[in-house]
Automatic annotation (TrEMBL):
One of its GO terms (cellular component) is polytene chromosome. InterPro entries: KMT5A, SET_dom_sf. GO terms for biological process: regulation of DNA damage response, signal transduction by p53 class mediator; regulation of transcription by RNA polymerase II. One of its GO terms (molecular function) is histone H4K20 methyltransferase activity. This is SET domain-containing protein.
Amino acid sequence: MPPRVSPLKDAQKTIQSRTDNTNKLDVKYINAVKGRGIIALGQFSKGDFVLEYRGDLITDYHPTCAGFLFSFKWRGKTW
């Protein structure tokens, strides 16, 4: 088994090549409230680089950004 690439080096390589490693990810439309979501098609290990977030980073609360909703599904159970 080849040695594991560090998450930092994996992230740098992915960002510099302007690609995402999407073989373990799929984008699905959830519903009108949630919109689209990223679904894992395989397992990830702790510390793995998954993808680069290309959206706006919101650091301060603003009424137009009233909240965030994250749901997770694992073994048939949703949180």
